[in-house]
Write a structure and sequence with these properties.
heterotrimer; A mainly alpha; B mainly alpha; C alpha/beta; A: mainly alpha; two-stranded antiparallel ribbon; 16 helices; 2 strands; 2% strand; globular; B: mainly alpha
């Protein structure tokens, strides 16, 4: 119990400290920190839209947060979620474009599978490079990011764009015909909640992928802590020598962890393509892969923690626009800065811990 | 005609390689001391923005350039304190800094210039001047190649032999290398591990900051959002491709600069997509890391915080 | 007065405690100027602690140190260096990609302007290496040198800094016999030129051949100071290991069955050419305990890890009940009945941040009924862990605690419980009671005998000679990767086995 409290306490302190520093920045720039804090809360909690967008923004971050967490549990730092989700999102759209005549539900399934598979491959390659050649996964995943982004941008630009479209995006896989969205897609929350008699606004892009993200949290939890494979993966992360002694292959688990991590990151493609834009839109990711590192770190690499950390970052994302509009000088970039400060503070957590311990000792 | 084309291509290669060379050599100081530095991108952005913003107010690009180096130093200072003093994960700290400097220039430019992330255009005379090198500017081929560049280009070209000298000929360089390879051995020989690592990381800040300044007040005349466009990472790739050696890194930067120059020139001319040229640095780095063309072996103690054995 | 000035080093009444443990108790050691002084003793006798105090790594709780007759306070290695002390660690402190010269001058570089004066540095290195007969190429890269050459670089490092008193920790442990000869010549040369040398070792023949005086340590105390001329191998061996056997474990006569494990011509060569195991052959039968005696680092670790499937051998055969198992991985070996209690429970044996229940299944975590096709069967795991904790008296008996929260003895009991639970045909057990309290030690010993009596073959490695002798039915002695003899633990004298362990006597099988 005391341990759980400690686990919760330190990320919380880091967040509060970051908000304080963020407030000082607001004050320095010449706006009112209180106004900014108020805008943050009112934009998120003030309306159904606020909550809806927060959850929608959190969806990709849950996936990438889980992705980073799974790799981390095996002692690996996956900086490549950005590339994995980019490749996966394109693959999702590509399956839709390739199978225009197939029944939509089959295409949805295949496209979702493609997202997971391509993400897994893009994550698995650095895993193999590490297991086989000892190449540091941080460097290889950075390189894989750029390669994915370039290849996908090439394919979009040269092969799958509508003739003369000034925007770098593929043709749509689903389109509105006679006021009805036709073509492969997953339902939005509006459609899911309507049968239950809940009127969730149709304009909100929150969709089935959010429920999928929750499911992913549960599955990751079960996998890591309730299966023999998770047992092995975590054992490698804690102590490779002891894992080896227990008959666990370090190389195999390195590849497995990276591939799983990539699959989770790849699921962002389901939200983006099948649930939101119904096409591949180049540069859609607002650094989800990198924010995922923050989410995992803040969530202490636990699915429950990741879920709540993603909500926080999703809420920050939601408040961006309001902070931009309703303040004089502060722009939405303040939120980006705040995110970075949170990461820095959580990364330097040892200081907080040491300080807290010294404080406690002082009291006793 | 073809000669001129080729020569101007080479000159453009040198210009495009300049920010890469500076950031790459910066990364070299940091990584040779044992601190992995993926924050080069963020540091370059900080330098680029500071240079442009300061020049707007002072009308003096030299002051802009100097403050860019100081800005780089300060940002690297965050990295150093977090990863050396507080033993935070070096990669995570680097990522945080990269995110931070997507936000900071945008926020500050909003406050100072009421823009959304760029600085006002500087008049041409307020950017760094083109320097002709007396003597060389009269030699036909060399003049086109080496003369008429911005001063930072010459600093970058000079930084290569200087770095080589510092690294392999001076006390500082020897200690830096020792700390990055085997901190315990250096420690028992009386070398301060933390001190050397601070020096390495801070130097990387100065150089990458200068590389950033070249983008905003050398090559261009303003700062625009995310104007480094991954150059910090390409510099990192060059460092690895050059096997953590100053000359190797320099040559890799030239190679990547050449790829960039060709890509620009080919736009709309030849039907090879630019993306294929853009990924060359990254693919080559992967190939080297996997050991297909000579193995790239990083400094042995890289990424590991040094903890004195508790006795 | 004249006697005091003859001593380069004098340690008087030195005591050092680590928490409850007394590592050194009231040491008195005098090292004569310009002599080679050997400090010998078993592992854990306190030799290294004593030398680390002298070199300033540790500060003593009591006592004083005199250098050249003057009382000195040595707080840090820098103090020690300033007083003319130099230390060559057993694990070299070298930067492999750097050159010999660079390694030697690191931290004390001669400069000309801003640059290192490499010319002068190389010159100086050449001078010193010629003066003391330490032939080495100043421009060679250290990583490319042989271990013996690297050791010379370490010695040169101390000489370059002006050391007059050299401390060498197990200098011959890593050398080939030929290199040992060269090292002796070098050390004698250094003595002729006025240096004082202290070597820590456990090899008696070397001590007798090389040193002028000997200090024998045992259990943190000095048990003898004598000139080498008056020493005999037998006498020294007795002083080193000879003691009342405190723990004689009661056990019945073994009733051996068929061979469970047979090892034939097992050899392991390292990539650098060194030999860790040299043509080792033996058998362990069901119902008997075979002990392996030997000073640590003579191939025991490698032998056990090869048998457990954790590292491959260069050549040779390993059979379990007649079946060749060379190619099997650790999991498959466990499934066939080989249990393994590893020598280092923190590095190998436990996942310290996992709870006891999770640790109780390491190695069998994928097998039914512990795991179903997908999910771990937590009920079975918990029940099993509860049973183990109870049967093996692991305290506190809370299976939800992380293993790191337990004392060493209870951690070890958990490992023993886990390994016993597979009903092994063969148990590989290494240092079963290292860092374990008396109560747990007795308990573990009793359990090991019970297992033997139940028909399991037990292969026991321990640095504690006493433990090997009291638990084993037969004992073989390993020295430098070779079996140098087999003895009957009931009749063997401690001198005799001590000699074998230290290379003092060699009995070919």
């Amino acid at each position: 119990m005391k341990k759980l409290l400690e686990e919760l306490l330190f990320p919380l302190i880091a967040v509060v400290a970051a908000f304080l520093v963020g407030g000082i920045i607001v004050w320095l720039v010449g706006d009112s920190p209180l106004l900014v804090y108020e805008l943050f809360f009112s934009s998120v909690f003030g309306s159904t839209d606020g909550i809806g967008y927060t959850l929608f923004n959190a969806t990709p971050l849950i996936f990438t947060g889980l992705a980073v967490a799974v790799a981390f549990k095996c002692g690996l730092l996956n900086i490549g979620a950005e590339g994995q989700l980019t490749a996966a999102a394109f693959a999702t759209a590509w399956v839709g474009l390739m199978l225009p005549t197939w029944p939509a539900w089959i295409v949805v399934l295949l496209a979702a599978l493609a997202a997971i598979l391509v993400g897994g491959i893009w994550g698995g390659i650095p895993g193999v490079l590490k297991a086989r050649f000892g190449a540091h996964e941080v460097i290889t995943t950075i390189m894989m990011n750029f390669i994915a982004i370039a290849i996908v941008s090439y394919l979009t630009q040269y092969h799958y764009r509508r003739q003369g479209d000034p925007i770098l995006e593929t043709l749509p896989i689903a389109d509105v015909k006679d006021g009805v969205l036709t073509g492969p897609h997953i339902p939005r929350m509006h459609a899911l909640l309507a049968p239950l008699g809940i009127n969730f606004p149709e304009r909100l892009p929150l969709n089935l992928a959010f429920l999928l993200a929750i499911l992913a949290c549960v599955l990751v939890y079960v996998f890591l802590w309730k299966t023999k494979w998770g047992y092995e993966l975590r054992a490698v992360g804690i102590n490779p020598s002891a894992a080896e002694y227990g008959g666990i292959s370090v190389a195999r688990n390195t590849v497995l962890a990276m591939a799983l991590s990539g699959m989770l990151a790849g699921m962002v493609g389901i939200n983006e393509v099948l649930g939101y834009r119904y096409r591949y839109y180049d540069g859609f990711s607002a650094g989800y892969g990198f924010t995922g590192i923050a989410v995992a770190l803040l969530g202490r690499n636990h699915p429950v923690g990741v879920f709540f950390a993603a909500l926080l970052f999703g809420a920050l994302d939601r408040s961006k626009l309001f902070i931009d509009i309703f303040t004089d000088k502060i722009s939405k970039d303040w939120v980006v800065i705040l995110q970075a400060i949170i990461i820095l503070f959580v990364a330097c957590e040892a200081v907080f811990r040491g300080g807290a311990r010294r404080l406690m000792r002082g009291k006793v | 005609m073809r000669d001129i084309l080729n020569l101007s291509l080479l000159a453009s290669m040198i210009r495009l390689a300049t920010p890469l060379i500076l950031a790459s050599l910066g990364g070299l100081y940091s990584e040779r001391s044992g601190v992995i530095n993926i924050a080069l991108e963020g540091i370059m952005l900080a330098g680029a923005f500071t240079a442009a913003a300061v020049t707007v107010f002072t009308h003096n690009p030299w002051i802009g350039m100097l403050t860019a180096m100081i800005a780089g130093l300060l940002v690297a200072g965050i990295h150093a304190v977090a990863s050396i003093q507080f033993r935070a994960n070096q990669v995570v700290v680097g990522t945080a800094i990269n995110i931070l400097f997507v936000g900071v220039p945008a926020l500050v430019s909003g406050a100072l210039f009421e823009s959304t992330g760029s600085t006002p255009q500087l008049p041409r005379e307020q950017t760094l001047p083109d320097w002709n090198i007396p003597g060389i500017d009269r030699i036909p081929v060399l003049s086109q190649l080496l003369s008429g560049h911005k001063p930072i280009v010459y600093i970058a070209l000079l930084a290569v032999p200087v770095t080589y000298y510092v690294l392999f000929r001076t006390r500082f360089g020897l200690r830096l290398r020792a700390v990055g390879e085997n901190p315990e051995a250096a420690d028992t020989a009386g070398v301060s591990v933390a001190g050397m690592r601070y020096a390495g990381v801070l130097l990387s800040g100065v150089l990458a900051g200068l590389g950033g300044a070249y983008l905003s007040i050398g090559q261009n005349s303003l700062f625009t959002r995310n104007m480094t466009a991954g150059r910090g990472f390409i510099a990192l790739a060059a460092l690895i491709f050059g096997k953590w050696h100053p000359v190797g890194a320099f040559l890799a930067c030239l190679l990547f600069g050449m790829a960039d120059a060709i890509a620009i020139r080919m736009q709309g001319v030849v039907n090879i997509p630019v993306q294929f040229i853009q990924i060359i640095p990254y693919v080559l780095t992967l190939v080297v890391l996997a050991g297909f063309i000579g193995r790239a072996i990083p400094p042995r103690a890289i990424g590991e915080p040094y903890v004195k054995e508790s006795r | 007065m004249s006697e005091a000035t003859q001593n380069a080093v004098e340690m008087r009444g030195i005591t050092k405690r680590f928490g409850e443990v007394v590592a050194n108790r009231n040491l008195n050691i005098a090292v004569r100027d310009r002599s080679i002084h050997a400090i010998i003793g078993e592992n854990g006798a306190g030799k290294s602690t004593a030398m680390n105090i002298l070199y300033g790594f540790y500060n003593p709780d009591e006592g004083e140190i005199l250098i050249d007759g003057q009382p000195r306070v040595i707080r840090t290695p820098s103090d020690a260096i300033a007083l003319g002390l130099g230390m060559v660690h057993q694990h070299f402190m070298l930067v492999e990609p750097l050159s010999v010269t660079e390694n030697i001058i690191l931290g004390a570089e001669p400069t000309a302007g801003v640059a290192i004066d490499y010319k002068r540095a190389r010159q100086r290195v050449r001078e010193i290496s010629e003066q003391y007969g330490l032939r080495i190429d100043p421009e060679a890269r250290v990583g490319m040198l042989s271990v013996g050459q690297q050791q010379r670089v370490e010695i040169l490092k101390t000489l370059y800094r002006g050391a007059r008193i050299l401390i060498l920790d197990e200098p011959t442990a890593v050398l080939t016999p030929q290199e040992v000869g060269e090292m002796f010549a070098i050390l004698r040369g250094l003595r002729e030129q006025g240096k004082t040398i202290i070597i820590i070792t456990h090899k008696l023949q070397e001590v007798l051949a090389l040193s002028d005086n000997i200090t024998v340590m045992r259990d943190g105390e000095v048990v003898g100071n004598l000139p080498t001329a008056e020493a005999t191998a037998e006498g020294l061996a007795k002083m080193m290991v000879g003691r009342e056997v405190l723990l004689r474990v009661k056990k019945d006569e073994a009733r051996p069955r068929a061979a469970a494990l047979s090892v034939k011509n097992l050899t392991l060569r390292h990539a650098d050419g060194g030999t860790a195991l040299d043509d080792v052959s033996f058998e362990v039968r069901g119902g008997e305990t075979l002990g392996i005696a030997g000073v640590e680092g003579n191939g025991q670790t490698e032998l056990i890890e090869i048998l457990a499937g954790l590292r491959p051998s260069t050549s040779g055969e390993v059979r379990l009940e007649g079946q060749l198992i060379n190619a099997l991985d650790p999991h498959e070996r466990k499934r066939r009945g080989i249990a393994h209690i590893p020598e280092d429970r923190h590095r190998r044996g436990l996942l310290l941040s996992y709870d006891l229940a999770s640790n109780s299944i390491l190695g069998v975590h994928g097998d039914p009924p512990i795991s179903g096709a997908v999910l771990l069967n937590q009920k079975v795991i918990n029940a099993r862990a509860e049973r183990m904790v109870k049967e093996f008296d692991v305290r506190p008996p809370n299976i939800a605690l992380p293993a790191g929260a337990l004392s060493g003895g209870n951690q070890q009991k958990l490992i023993v419980a886990r390994e016993f639970d597979i009903k092994p045909k063969l148990l590989l057990v290494s240092q079963p009671t290292r860092g374990v309290d008396i109560g747990a030690t007795e308990f573990i010993h009793r359990k090991l005998i019970e297992l033997r009596d139940a028909g399991c073959a037990v292969l026991l490695v321990s640095a504690e000679l006493e433990e090997v002798l009291s638990l084993s039915d037969r004992v073989i002695v390993l020295y430098e990767g070779r079996i140098v003899g087999e003895v009957d633990p009931k009749t063997v004298g401690e001198e005799e086995i001590g000699l074998m362990m230290t290379g003092g006597a060699r009995q070919r099988l």
